[in-house]
């Protein structure tokens, strides 16, 4: 697999994607995105139609959403064991990721 390109803005959402890249030893390039309008340009929006961060370009395969990116990388490197394949263990993994999304994700935990 060629180097992937990871767009990032805020450190917290970027952390999980960058951690997976690091854990899998997948080379990547981080491109900072200016959130004062760069993410709303037609050039950017042809890759991420919601004008949000993140997305990756993996040798021409464009994918956005943090969890989808992490799972895609883990699936491409299935020998890594990051996502369990045994059904019960995988179910517990999915349960944990659902709990993380629902109860611990920074965007869902903002007070007020």
Automatic annotation (TrEMBL):
EC identifiers of the protein: 2.5.1.18
Superkingdom field: Eukaryota
Gene Ontology molecular-function annotations: glutathione binding; glutathione transferase activity
GO biological process: glutathione metabolic process
GST N-terminal domain sequence ranges: 1-81
Record keywords, A-Z: Transferase
Gene Ontology annotations for the cellular component aspect, listed alphabetically: cytoplasm
Protein name: glutathione transferase
Keyword Transferase listed: yes
UniProt cross-references to PROSITE patterns, sorted A to Z: GST_NTER
């Amino acid at each position: 697999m060629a180097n992937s390109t990871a767009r990032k803005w805020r450190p917290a959402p970027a952390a999980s994607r960058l951690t997976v890249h690091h854990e899998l030893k997948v080379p990547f390039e981080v491109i900072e995105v200016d959130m004062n309008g760069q993410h709303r340009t037609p050039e950017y929006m042809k890759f991420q139609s919601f004008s949000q961060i993140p997305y990756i370009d993996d040798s021409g395969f464009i994918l956005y959403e943090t969890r989808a990116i992490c799972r895609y990388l883990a699936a491409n490197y299935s020998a890594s064991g990051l996502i369990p394949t045994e059904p019960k263990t995988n179910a517990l993994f999915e349960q944990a990721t659902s709990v993380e999304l629902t109860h611990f994700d920074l965007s869902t935990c903002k007070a007020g």
